[in-house]
Amino acid sequence: MSIIGATTGELLSRLERGELTSVELTTAYLDRIAQQDDRVSAFLTVNTAEALQQAADVDRRRQAKQPVGLLAGIPVAIKDVLCTKGLKTTCASRMLANFIPPYDAHVITQLRNADAVLIGKTNMDEFAMGSTTETSAFKITRNPWDLDRTPGGSSGGSAAAVAAGMSPLALGTDTGGSIRQPAGFCSVVGMKPTYGRVSRFGMVAYGSSLDQIGPFANDVNGAALLAQVIAGHDGRDSTSVNAPVPAYSQTVNQPLAGLRVGIAKEHFVEGLNPEVEQTLRTALQVYKSLGAEIKEVSLPHTSYGVAVYYLIAPSEASSNLARYDGVHYGHRAEQFSNMIDMYATSRGEGFGSEVKRRIMLGTYALSAGYYDAYYLKALKVRRLIRQDYDKAFEQIDVLASPASPNPPSKVGEYSANPLAMYLEDIYTIGANLAGLPGISVPAGFTEAGLPVGLQLLAAPFEEEKLLRAARMYELATKWQGQRAAL
Amino acid sequence: MDYTTIIGLEVHVQLQTNTKIFCGCSTKFNPDNPNVQTCPVCLGLPGSLPVMNRHAFDLAVKTATAINCQIARFTKWDRKQYYYPDLPKGYQISQYDLPFSHDGWLEIVINKETGEKKKIGIIRAHLEEDAGKNTHDETGRGHDSQVDLNRAGTPLLEIVSHPDLRSAQEAKEYLEELKLLLTYLEVSDCNMQEGSLRCDANVNVHIHRDGQKIATPLVEIKNLNSFRNVELAIEFEADRQYRQWQQDGMTFGAVLKETRGYDAVRNITVAQRTKENASDYRYFPDPDLVPVTIEEAYLQNVIDSMVEFPAARRTRFIQQYQLSNYDAAVIIDQGVVFANFVEHVAKICGDGKQACNWVTQDVLREMNDRKLTIEGFPIQPPVLGEILKRVNDKKITIKSGREIFLNLLNSEDLSTISVARIDQIIQEQGLSIVADSGQLEAVIVGVLAKNAKAVADFKGGKQSAVGSLIGQAMKEMKGADPATVRELLLKKLAE
Ligand SMILES: [Zn+2]
Fold it and tell me: What residues have CB less than 8 Å from A141, skipping those under 6 apart?
């Protein structure tokens, strides 16, 4: 039985039975990266030496029958937006090209405590701004299912790493769909937890009120296990919620009786690719066959979502990225004439064009005279959007939709038209604006063989229900077992 | 020159917490070791997040309550955005439209003799984080500027007054009263040298001309690092504005608010270059911090645990110890430790007035002469109180009390100062007042017998002869009360 492509559960049981060591397993993934990443470009940093050391350490403790963590010996790839102590964390930006954090993000501490192996740092859109992983300052990640296409973004490196069998698990971050959309594009499982479920401490901020860290895996069980490891209260993040974390991995295989699956009539809009729509309808049939009830609900403020998102996220980003000024760390221009020029030149050289575009958008929206009309109004509409979901979840358990309206784009397709790229976020940003958990599971392929994802959303802190509903679907379909042929 | 100076003050006070407002770093004043009291949060490293220091918030609410502010039931944090090297995040976490407190007042004494008071309105008090400190090359050789972030993230309370102050003297009184209150509350050490209390003054003048009031343009004076400088700067600035108006006739609103710095060496204010983009800070609510809601029970607890304020204590001292406005002010204005000292002495000796007199005269004089603080004064209340108690109980004379006080103060070994030592000195030097009139009478009879000539002189009409007789009697009976000796002696002579 192959290591590459196996699920996390399979790998763990082989490790536990002693059929496999973590060093063997980690070596297999490192070899896979060495063989395939020239073409996929999922990784920015491969953490070879430390990963092998972590693996050896877990092996030693496992052989000595010492207690080990939930992810003992399992490689996890880390989006390069999460701070790793002593390991370069670049946010795929020239600005932080040489930044080595002196501390671990909370989720990294959780991974270390669970004895996971940190296999490397993955590529992303610069500062998580983008939906294609093309705005990275260093490389363009390719979709393992079609190397001419993007893996989605901004967590495209993590999604592609899992899809290409270069890591069984990965962490991503999701501000407007940056986990769920690339998961759909790469035919892997990706989950965004409820806002506040996972500590943001050590995640380089994009849109602070929207950002969440979440798992990628090649099956729902793997995602459940990784989610369980990273979730929980952390006093260092004021928005982290102090609520018990259910053992998702223990319950994920239990089907839900009387499941109510909702669809929003506002989601069937012009611009929804017919093949993607058909995939969703087929998925609903699967749920019906499993005994679920399908209910139509209304989310009347859906059409404002993109506008609201592209005011709030850039506004917060314009402020969050002000610290990259060349004074204390990060890129500083070689040549400048005075202090203001040092700021301007350092930032001008350090940031790419998509980051600059969003900083300008946000700076404008927060400026005196525009604040009320843009930012404040966006906050009000955000509340209405949240109310839409609150109302919907009184009638349904999960809301089903495509992860994105179209299959993966060709590399370069959106370079001249960022607005078209922004509009691709319509199904995912609602969960960020409302703080809801969401998951994307593989739901089939277009005729051209491009992956399509099914997105499920649930009410806040209903991750357990969400994972069980996703697992029901996964077990009833064949998509999970499909692997990209590289 | 007929004008009124109009002043509003913005005071920044560092709150006395052990740790910074949004991280666990120390707030110690440590200018010699730059950037050692820092962490990812106060360095503004990528991914770091602020967590509110509950203690800083408690101190802020305590202070705002003491300056009679309304405490908001809901308050939030905002980002004030501007670029400066001492501001590592590119924004300062502050409070914009919903400060935790607003609309208060502070009463100041504008006449120490009469005790006349005036209420100065407070617009708002809000919490924010301090920035770091930039050091520039002063040699003119163009070396790099340096940034020390030890101070970055220290909790600051900004207290903004209404323009209710009408003279430089009033501004100084306001600052002194505020400082006194803050130290009484133990919320700040108010050390201006270390920057724990900083002040900006908004100044203009109202010129009275032909029954009309003409207001000059508003000026904000920065860089005021002592109360004396606040006074001098305002005096200079008011006069400058008056002269400026005579030249150009510019009035309030005709130009934007100007920022001027105070040059203490030349005693002038100098126009400063305004910060670029300073007009638009693009405030917005900080998404990394949750709003704070304040419960009634919490506020009640703050009120219940409040200490007596200086103003209330002044009033009480006047009544309880029959002090003048002036004397009460002298005691209270010395600070809480000094006032506590007085009260402690009063409690032991049982005579408040006596305690006040001694501490404000003898103790204060010796403190000044010997350059001592009240905390370091060698004779602390338990001992001083016992000296005064003996005076009150007529066991020793007030003169003997002073002798004992000085004797103790001049002890070679200050650790020997104790109540037991008082009684030892009384014993050694025979300072006990002799209440036994029989014993005294015997001494006087003896003195009269030995001084037949003086007795004869006195009886012959020479009144002054009695002086030497009293002197001799006193010499033999050290602790005797001179008045008693005199009375008894005259009685004997009259027999
Ligand atoms: Zn710190």
Answer: A40, A41, A42, A123, A133, A150, A151, A156, A157, A160
